[in-house]
Amino acid sequence: MNRYFQQNVGYMVKIVNETIPALQKLKEAGKIRFIGITGLPLEKFTYVLDRVPPGTVDVILSYCHYSINDSTLEDLLPYLKNKGVGVISASPLAMGLLTELGPPEWHQASPELKSACQAAATNCKEKGKNISKLAM
């Protein structure tokens, strides 16, 4: 296995004390090559990375924080570079916010953000442009 991503790092203490050490053993045994973590709140990454030995986590997968409506991942990039952690930016369309169809019902964005993104998509369409292409 090339990469193993621990998704939903909501159980932070367990991730740091149990999951990451178990993954490190698999990495040392040659069963996996890279360890990665993924999650929506950016502070979860710093929580984990500040509590595991340097070089343990190779990559993070962050979604919805590096797009035209949210660039907060940029603030974390120097920290990640200093830790030697690679970055995969997922969902550049913000899980549907930056599309003409809009996000799914369960999307956690505020009603105000959903409305603003829909207005932007409508504005783009009226000008013969597609917000998704603009966002990319």
Give an overview in words.
With 136 residues, the protein is an alpha/beta fold. It has helices at 12-28, 43-49, 73-83, 111-126, 131-135; strands at 3-6, 34-39, 59-63, 86-90. It has a 4-stranded parallel β-sheet. Helix 3 links the parallel strand 3 and strand 4 (86-90).
Could you name the key traits of this structure?
4 strands, alpha/beta, elongated, four-stranded parallel beta sheet, 136 residues, 15% strand, 5 helices
Task: Supply the helix-strand structural class.
Answer: alpha/beta
- Average pLDDT: 90
Give the strand content.
5-15%
The unreliable regions are none
Helix segment tally: 5
In short:
Helix content is 41%, strand content 15%. It has 136 residues and is an alpha/beta fold.
Question: What topology does this entry show?
Answer:
Layout: E1 3-6, H1 12-28, E2 34-39, H2 43-49, E3 59-63, H3 73-83, E4 86-90, H4 111-126, H5 131-135
Parallel strand pairs: 1-2, 2-3, 3-4
